[in-house]
Write a structure and sequence with these properties.
Layout: E1 2-4, E2 7-13, H1 15-32, E3 39-44, H2 48-56, E4 63-73, E5 80-85, E6 95-103, H3 107-117, E7 123-131, E8 144-148, E9 154-155, E10 171-174
Helix pairs in contact: 1-2
Bound molecules: guanosine-5'-monophosphate.
Guanosine-5'-monophosphate (5GP) is lined by residues 46, 101-109, 153-155, 159-160.
């Protein structure tokens, strides 16, 4: 059991299970992207450890770049606005592989997907370490999923609670109490 600020968490997915799954996904990517020179786009901050571990096992020629989604409240309207920053190379005609940490409602991924699509890539694939199917309300195409999990709050291996917990090598889930 660990405590981060006011919340308690218990270990949920051990480090070894994560690393084995990451390796399996990398091997699938190596088969699926032979001769395609994929361009990986890691979504910061949450995917930085996942993207790094995955990338170490990619053996086909490839590139990686990192993007960040900024969410802010638009003072002119009530809607929450999103902005994707960091696209500083051409995605046109590239086989783009988005690397996400977790898909919850699917809103963030849909926004990223649409923004990438507008750049006319040859293809777009999505890898997510975690997916909460019960929480997903936007139908998003997930090509590679590390683990499907229940609709509970998790931290570790890049994911945070109020900025903390990203350094934990395993994934932890919030306790019921
Ligand atoms: P969505 O737009 O799919 O609802 O949410 C995606 C984002 O919400 C993720 O990139 C992540 O930042 C955050 N998120 C959703 N569920 C969790 C969770 O269980 N733990 C943490 N740490 N972040 C989450």
């Amino acid at each position: 059991m660990i405590q981060i600020e006011d919340l308690k968490f218990e270990e949920f997915i051990p480090e070894n299970n994560i690393l084995n799954r990451v390796k399996e996904i990398s091997e699938k990517i190596n088969t699926d992207f032979t001769n395609k020179k994929p361009l990986f786009l890691g979504i910061l901050n949450g995917s930085f450890l996942f993207a790094a571990d995955l990338f170490k096992h990619i053996s086909v020629p490839c590139e990686i770049s990192f993007l960040k989604v900024n969410s802010y409240i638009n003072t002119e309207s009530t809607g929450k606005m999103k902005e994707l920053i960091g696209i500083n190379q051409s995605l046109t005609d590239r086989h783009v592989v988005i690397i996400e940490d977790i898909v919850d409602t699917g809103r963030t991924l849909q926004y990223i997907f649409d923004t990438v699509k507008a750049e006319n890539p040859a293809s777009i694939s999505v890898i997510t370490l975690l997916h909460k199917p019960e929480a997903t309300i936007i139908p998003v195409k997930l090509d590679y999923v590390g683990f499907e999990i229940k609709n509970e709050f998790v931290v570790g291996y890049g994911l945070d609670y109020n900025g903390y917990g990203r350094n934990l090598p395993a994934i932890y889930i919030k306790t019921k109490d």
